[in-house]
Design a protein that fits this description.
By secondary structure, this protein is of the alpha+beta class. The chain has three domains: 7-52, Uridine Diphospho-n-acetylenolpyruvylglucosamine Reductase, domain 2; 60-173, 2-Layer Sandwich (Uridine Diphospho-n-acetylenolpyruvylglucosamine Reductase, domain 3); 178-287, CO dehydrogenase flavoprotein, C-terminal domain (Enolase-like, domain 1). Helices cover 35% and strands 26% of the residues. It has helices at 14-24, 37-42, 78-83, 85-90, 92-98, 104-109, 112-118, 124-131, 149-152, 228-232, 241-254, 266-287; strands at residues 7-9, 28-31, 50-53, 63-65, 69-73, 135-140, 143-148, 153-155, 158-159, 166-173, 178-187, 194-204, 210-218, 225-226. The strands form four sheets. The chain has a five-stranded antiparallel beta sheet. Strands 11-12-13-14 form a four-stranded antiparallel beta sheet, with helices on both faces. Helix 2 links the parallel strand 2 (28-31) and strand 3. Helix 11 packs antiparallel against helix 12. The longest helix is centred in the C-terminal third of the chain and has 22 residues, at 266-287. The chain is globular and about 55 Å long. The termini are far apart. The mean pLDDT is 95.
Length: 292
């Protein structure tokens, strides 16, 4: 099928893009990589009066580092994230997740920023964003603001961004201590959306006590979610196999999956959340130098 008619705009600056969104009064959508939006337009799942293509705004295509943080521009492709030495050294969880996304064709066009704004409940980047407590940098007519990862997703395919705002970057703050990470994903076939995905970031101190715990889940709720109660089970004390198993159980109990004729029942997905969380925690703790 072919999409319906729409107006197409290709601004050269961020200011111009914001002005176009503001003047559209909610009738325009941002086009980033287009890996999700274009298929939806072609199949006419959605009909959009106007597209604002931000592909020519070079300031959104940078990976920037500060003293204790990393900012990934919203137009940096998944492939460039995967290949970035800077990203890999500072946040190897991001690199690991990037390798699970789609296939090379998708990663060459898709972006983390576009994926987060699309807010697919099964998106890989959502779990990573939550596990690392990222911040969305958004710019609109009233200026720039930051949205914490816990407040970013407002429901299926929706975010807390305003209609005239553009995601310009994703900020991740450095985590102190000895760090470990893991992303466990169950999928029907290579490159598929997750049946269940669990992203874990762990930090421990010299005494083996957990000083940071981040657990992000995807495909098991109406939007990607953070397993905050499961994090509490291991935070602030030495990590043991008993506490890992308890954390995994809590994660499976606090998610809200739905029955799916393609990927399994809600009960099956809850079971997988427990399995994947346990595997991810064990891998992350061992990488951080912990003894289980």
């Amino acid at each position: 099928m072919y999409p319906g008619t729409f107006d197409y705009h290709r601004p050269q600056t961020l200011k111009e893009a914001v002005e176009l969104l503001e003047s559209s009064r909610g009738n325009a959508r941002i086009l980033a990589g287009g890996m999700s939006l274009i298929p939806m337009l072609k199949s006419r799942i959605v009909s959009i009066p106007a597209l604002v293509d931000i592909g020519k705004i070079d300031e959104l295509k940078k990976v920037e580092t500060g003293k204790d943080h990393l900012i990934i521009g919203s137009m940096v492709t998944d492939h460039d994230i995967e290949e970035s030495r800077t990203v890999g050294e500072m946040f190897p969880l991001i690199t690991e997740v990037s390798r699970w996304i789609g296939d090379p064709q998708v990663r060459n066009r898709g972006t983390m920023g576009g994926s987060l704004c699309h807010a697919d409940p099964s998106g890989d980047w959502g779990a990573c964003f939550l596990a690392l407590r990222g911040k969305a940098l958004v710019t609109g007519p009233k200026g720039t603001r930051k949205i914490d990862s816990d407040s970013f997703f407002s429901g299926p395919f929706s975010t807390s961004m305003n209609e005239s705002e553009i995601l310009t970057g994703i900020e991740f703050n450095q985590i102190d201590g000895m760090n470990g990470h893991a992303y466990e994903k169950i999928e029907r076939k290579a490159g598929d959306f997750a049946t269940v995905g669990v992203a874990v970031q762990i930090s421990i101190d010299e005494k083996g006590k957990c000083t940071y715990a981040g657990i992000g889940l995807t495909s098991v709720s109406s939007s990607p979610i953070r397993a905050a109660e499961a994090e509490k089970e291991i935070l602030g004390k030495p990590v043991t196999m008993k506490s890992i198993e308890s954390s995994a159980r809590i994660a499976s109990e606090h998610c809200d999956p739905s029955d799916d004729p393609l990927r399994g029942s809600a009960e099956f997905k809850r079971y997988l959340v427990g399995i994947c969380t346990k595997r991810a925690l064990i891998r992350a703790v061992k990488e951080a130098g912990g003894v289980i």
